[in-house]
Each structure stands twice: as C-alpha cells, then as structure tokens.
Amino acid sequence: MTRTLCLVAAFIFPALCLPAWATDFVTSTLPSKADLTSSGSNPYFILQPGYCLTLRSDTGKLVVTVLNETRKVDGVECRVVEERESDNGKLVEVSRNYFAISRKDNTVYYFGEDVDVYDKTGTKVQSHEGTWLAGVRGNKPGIIMPGNPKVGDKYYQEVAPKVAMDRAEIVSLTETLKVPAGTMTNVLKTLETSSIESGKEYKYYAKGIGLIKDADMLLVSHGYVK
To answer: Looking at residues 194-205, what average pLDDT do you find?
Structure first.
C-alpha cells in the first residue's frame, strides 16, 4: 500500500538479514503456508470478498475493495484488495494489494502490490513506482495487522529493500474518533514510518470495520458491495 530491524512482533520471517540500521526491530517465523488462507476476518482488517471502505478528504477519495479474486504470490494464494485513490475526481493511483490471513491467529500478512501511478490528467499510467512482490529479488512478506495487537507491537508491513520498507508501531487501542461514518471507540492507532524514506503518519482502525482514518482521509461508508 504505497500510501503509504531484525519485531515484526515476533511474527514474521525466518532468518531475515536486515542491514545495521534495522537492529531495533526483531523478526520471527512466517507461519506454514498451509496455515494461510485468502479469506477471513481480523478484528481490524476484513478480508472477505465484496467488502468495501470509502474514505474522503476535502478533495480526495480512497476506495478500498476486497475483490472476488486471488493471486498466488511466493507460493501462497492471496486475496486481491484494490485501492483506488483520486483527487478532484481524477485518478492518482490504483494498486492491487495481495494479502493472506493466518487460520490460527488471524494475523494478516502482506505479500506485495502492483501499482499504477497516473499522470496529472488521471487518464494515463506514468509509472509503477512502489510495485513489489514477496519472493522476488529477496523481498519478504510483511504484516499489515497482527491477530492479537498490543500497544508497543512494531512490525514491518513491507520488506522490499530499496523499494518499500514501511513499518508500523501500535501506539493505542483505546482511541475515540469521530468520522463521517460515525463515532468510533476503542480504535487502534498506528504510527507508520519507513526505514528508507523520511516522514511519518498515523492510521486508525475500528473493530469490525477496518481503516477509518488515513492521513486526512476519513471513513464515509463501509459494507459489502454486489
């Protein structure tokens, strides 16, 4: 998710050798591929076909749709989640993200994305910046949402050196946030940074719904589409 060193909260990959600057994070073991499935529901991340979130800002719109489509990435059948971002009615970016969820603890793993970045007219793809896939050029799957999140958990969401190294820390599980879709309580808040880019941002997730705030984008609707 382009809107976006050795924790992935004791959850991720075997013997991943990260560079020296990454030593404040630890890594662990990815579950057996047989324990991963393409559909399921983490309390904060729904991976069921047809589920859709729409977020808006003053000029922007982000639509996140769980497609009735899968793709095998690094030997794992992953669910395709499409993100369509627009500004002033013009496409900015379309990404197809690949996720799988643990049958045992509902941790959601991120296996990469294919990205189309549009020009200023919103009609022509000008690059595929941010595209990465687990199993290609040493890339590894990350975690998009732990199955049992705790304050202080830190984890890499993307492990694609020189391309995408986004990471998150859970800083609260008790936020209250008012968005156009309603007032949400016991909201999970993450602080997201990158080990190869500067800057930081906060994201907010509500139980049974998913993402409700991403930068200046706020949730306006959620539910299943036909």
So the answer is: 92
Instruction: Specify the pTM.
Output: 0.88
Position of tokens 């990469």?
A: 112
For residue 225, the tally of other CB atoms under 10 A from its CB is: 11
Where is 144: in which H helix or E strand? strand 140-145
Domains of the chain in sequence order: 20-224 (2.40.360)
d(CA 127, CA 92): 11
What is the radius of gyration, based on Cα positions, of the chain?
16
* Strand pairing class (90-102; 125-127): unpaired
Q: Angle at CA 115, nearest 5°, toward 111 and 118?
A: 165
Report the Cα 224 to chain-centroid distance in Å. Answer: 19
Is the confidence at residue 195, as pLDDT, over 90?
no
Q: How many CB atoms lie within 10 A of CB 134?
A: 25
Tokens (6 digits) for 148: 């049992």
Say which residue the tokens 């970045």 belong to.
Answer: 117
Angle ∠(52,55,59) on CA atoms, nearest 5 = 140
| Cα–Cα dist 108/150, whole Å | 15
| CA–CA separation, 148 and 177 (whole Å) | 21
